[in-house]
Specification:
alpha+beta
């Protein structure tokens, strides 16, 4: 056998070997990505792994507004609520604290309309939604038909009152005068949960 024929034979064998290895690689790659039955697949860093049960769908919020009253980040859970003031009552806003010991982080009252006479706004903690038992911020006097923005401050001397037991109430009371109690605006509150 001549040297030329031997070289052609070796080249042909190498080409066939490369072709067979290429087909095996393509076939193996296709088999790796084929589905076997109805079992869902979970992709982990490019590899497929058989899931033992149904794969839960992930969700997302389509806006910056979160439609829930609580949010947990890094193990810290915050609760937030907002409401329009009640009219014809001295309890214009009341919020139940979380069903776990919590500390009040923020409370505010923004009134675009207050009362037809001067009145006093009190922010307090109570066991029911209809009392202002433990005042947690200095009472604020509002002139008749005035607008007001009140933020309860933790610099008030009664800081221990800012810790709420499970399901206690933050109450915003409006007293004074004999006019019409028809406040308009928004009350807001935010707690940080201390225990589970």
């Amino acid at each position: 056998m001549s040297k030329n024929k031997l070289l052609k034979l070796k080249l042909s064998a190498a080409i066939v070997l490369i072709f067979v290895v290429g087909i095996a690689a393509v076939y193996g790659g296709v088999k790796a990505y084929q589905s076997y039955g109805d079992a869902p697949k979970v992709v982990v860093e490019g590899n497929y792994i058989e899931a033992s049960g149904p794969v839960e769908k992930m969700g997302a919020v389509a806006s910056p507004d979160i439609p829930f009253n609580w949010l947990s980040v890094g193990g810290v859970r915050e609760w937030a609520y907002s409401m329009t003031p009640n009219t014809a009552t001295t309890t214009i806003c009341a919020f139940a604290s979380p069903a776990a010991t919590s500390t009040l982080d923020f409370a505010s009252v923004a009134l675009t309309t207050s009362s037809s006479t001067a009145s006093i706004i009190t922010v307090a903690k109570a066991a029911t939604a209809y009392a202002t038992t433990t005042v947690i911020s200095s009472p604020i006097t509002i002139s008749a038909n005035a607008q007001a923005e009140i933020v309860a401050s933790s610099t008030y001397s009664n800081q221990a009152a800012w810790v709420f037991g499970p399901s206690q109430y933050l109450v915003v009371g409006m007293q004074g005068g004999v006019g019409t109690m028809s406040p308009a605006g928004t009350c807001k509150v935010r707690w940080i949960q201390l225990s589970d």
